[in-house]
Every structure is written in structure tokens, then in C-alpha cells.
């Protein structure tokens, strides 16, 4: 025999009334089936819950221990319909989101604030990851969504959906104190001293990597690749250390580091796109709510 909520409700009523007759009246039933239900509950639990004598009814130590737990279980049971409805509407649950480091300086913080305000009961699991690692995690179902830099490879385009979120220009990050920086305003690449280029490995964002090198080639420059780093904060840190210069998305200029100066470029730059990818077959209500809010807040 399994424990039933009905038995707990009957038990709590008798415990509150300490009188089987009055409890039966509250429950709109006769006393014999109420007494039988309590006896069956005691048999199921293996302990007497009430002391019964001519003076009345009192809770045993076992009954006193059960009472708060029974009330808690009954309260939770009452909340179940609302919980299920909120889960179906995407208002409770969990979502796992990965993001490239540049998103941390642009779209991610304001959107997370808006999402937390709209869906305070959703638990968000965040992890910073490069675009290539995000695509692998998405295709293997380890994350729900990823803020990444396109393009998506062929297999990913078959299994994933994609929403552009932000497009921004590239700008120069250079060691402070360079003579060329004494001139205000945008700079041309051919005005820069022959410092090494600090850039991320091509494998993590091939489109952006190739676009940066193409800008140098268009300016008649073959840059020396100095250090390679995966995270934007590391790239900026290396610039700060005087290890070279870098071209970074405009939003990265929000990362203030001593020894680094950001400057707009005179020539047109490719637009760096950041977008959200997710599995096409992921029908999670939480993800759908996330996407609906993101579409309202997209900057593209």
C-alpha cells in the first residue's frame, strides 16, 4: 500500500481537532471511515500517531514528528498545478548558455538583467567558451544555446537555428604611448609601427580571423603574428604588456586596462557579428521564452 495525500489530509485534520467526530465533520464524512483511514496510515508507517482514551485524542511523538512534514507535503501538492503551468510557460526551469568572451562586454550583461527581471524563477547556467567549442556542445546537446561568432559549418546549419544579435565594427587596441597615438582621430593601418599582431587562433573563429588579415593585406601590410590567445581579455592584456597590437570588436573597448589605448580605424572594417545558436529540435519552454525575449532586445 502506498502513502496517499488523502491519508495525510485526514491525519492533519484529526491532529488539529484532536477529536475524530469534529474532524469527520470538517471533512464532510462519517467517523468510521475516517478512523479506518487513520488506522491504515498507522499500519503503513509502522507507528501509532494518536493516543486514544476516554478523555480524548492526543498526538504521539511519532504523530508530532509527522505533523509538520504532512503539512509541508500537502502545501507542495497544492502548488503543483501552478508549478506545472509555469513550467509549461517557460517561467520556471533551467537553461544552459555559453558565450564568447566579447559578448561579455556587449550584449550579455544587459540581456541577462532583462531576462532575470522577466523570468526570476529560471536558473541560468553560464559558461564562457569559444565558438567552435560551443558548436560541438550544441550539436551534442550539452548546452541549450550559445552566443557565438558565425559562420556555422554545414552540419551545424542543418541541426541548429541561428539569430543575429549584434553587429559591430573592429577597432584598434594598441599599447599606450605609441607616437602615432598622439594624433587624434581614426588611424589607418599603414600609419601603425610594425608591431606584432596579437590574434586568436583561426580555428576558433575562422571568418573573423581571415577578415582581420584581409584588412592588413588591403593596406599593403603582411603582419607578423606574435602571440595567439583565445580570450579577448587575454589579447587586451598582452597589448597592455606591450607585446603587440590587436584588432578587436568595438565592444571590447569597454574592457579598460592600463597601458592600452583603443582607436577607431579610418578604413571600413568588416562587421563582427554575434548571434545566438540553438538546436532546432529543442522544444524547451524555457528556451522558447529566452528566444522570445532576445528577439525583442536584439540590436540587429
Structure description:
- By secondary structure, the protein is α/β, with parallel strands linked by helices.
- It has three domains: 5-88, Arc Repressor Mutant, subunit A, CATH 1.10.10.10; 93-166 and 273-297, Periplasmic binding protein-like II (D-Maltodextrin-Binding Protein, domain 2), CATH 3.40.190.10; 170-270, D-Maltodextrin-Binding Protein, domain 2, CATH 3.40.190.10.
- Helix content is 41%, strand content 21%.
- It has ten helices and twelve strands.
- Strands 4-3-5-12-6 form a five-stranded mixed sheet, with helices on both faces. A three-stranded antiparallel sheet has the order 10-7-11.
- Strand 8 (197-199), helix 8 (206-218) and strand 9 form a beta-alpha-beta unit.
- Helix 1 crosses helix 3 and helix 1 (5-17) crosses helix 4 (61-88).
- The longest helix has 28 residues, at 61-88.
- It is rod-shaped, with a radius of gyration of 32 Å.
- The protein starts with a helix and ends with a helix.
Briefly say what this structure is:
The chain is α/β, with parallel strands linked by helices.
Amino acid at each position: 500500500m502506498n502513502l496517499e495525500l488523502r491519508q495525510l489530509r485526514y491525519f492533519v485534520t484529526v491532529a488539529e481537532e484532536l477529536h475524530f467526530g469534529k474532524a469527520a465533520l470538517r471533512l464532510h464524512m462519517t467517523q468510521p471511515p475516517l478512523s479506518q483511514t487513520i488506522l491504515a496510515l498507522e499500519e503503513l508507517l509502522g507507528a501509532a500517531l494518536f493516543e486514544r482514551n476516554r478523555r480524548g485524542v492526543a498526538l504521539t511523538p511519532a504523530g508530532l514528528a509527522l505533523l509538520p512534514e504532512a503539512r509541508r507535503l500537502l502545501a507542495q501538492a497544492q502548488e503543483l498545478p501552478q508549478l506545472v503551468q509555469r513550467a509549461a510557460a517557460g517561467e520556471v526551469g533551467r537553461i544552459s548558455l555559453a558565450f564568447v568572451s566579447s559578448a561579455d562586454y556587449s550584449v550579455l550583461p544587459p540581456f541577462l538583467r532583462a531576462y532575470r527581471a522577466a523570468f526570476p524563477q529560471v536558473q541560468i547556467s553560464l559558461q564562457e567558451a569559444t565558438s567552435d567549442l560551443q558548436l560541438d556542445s550544441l550539436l551534442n546537446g550539452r548546452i541549450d544555446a550559445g552566443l557565438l561568432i558565425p559562420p556555422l559549418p554545414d552540419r551545424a546549419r542543418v541541426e541548429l537555428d541561428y539569430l543575429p544579435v549584434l553587429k559591430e565594427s573592429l577597432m584598434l587596441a594598441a599599447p599606450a604611448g605609441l607616437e602615432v597615438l598622439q594624433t587624434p582621430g581614426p588611424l589607418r593601418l599603414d600609419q601603425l609601427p610594425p608591431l606584432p599582431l596579437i590574434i586568436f587562433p583561426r580555428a576558433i573563429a575562422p571568418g573573423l580571423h581571415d577578415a582581420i588579415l584581409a584588412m592588413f593585406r588591403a593596406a599593403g601590410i603582411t603582419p607578423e603574428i606574435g602571440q595567439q590567445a583565445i580570450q579577448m581579455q587575454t589579447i587586451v592584456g598582452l597589448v597592455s604588456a606591450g607585446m603587440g597590437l590587436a584588432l578587436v570588436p568595438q565592444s571590447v573597448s569597454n574592457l579598460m586596462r592600463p597601458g592600452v589605448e583603443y582607436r577607431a580605424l579610418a578604413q571600413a572594417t568588416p562587421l563582427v557579428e554575434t548571434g545566438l545558436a540553438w538546436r532546432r529540435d529543442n522544444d524547451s519552454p524555457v528556451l522558447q521564452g529566452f528566444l522570445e525575449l532576445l528577439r525583442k532586445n536584439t540590436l540587429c
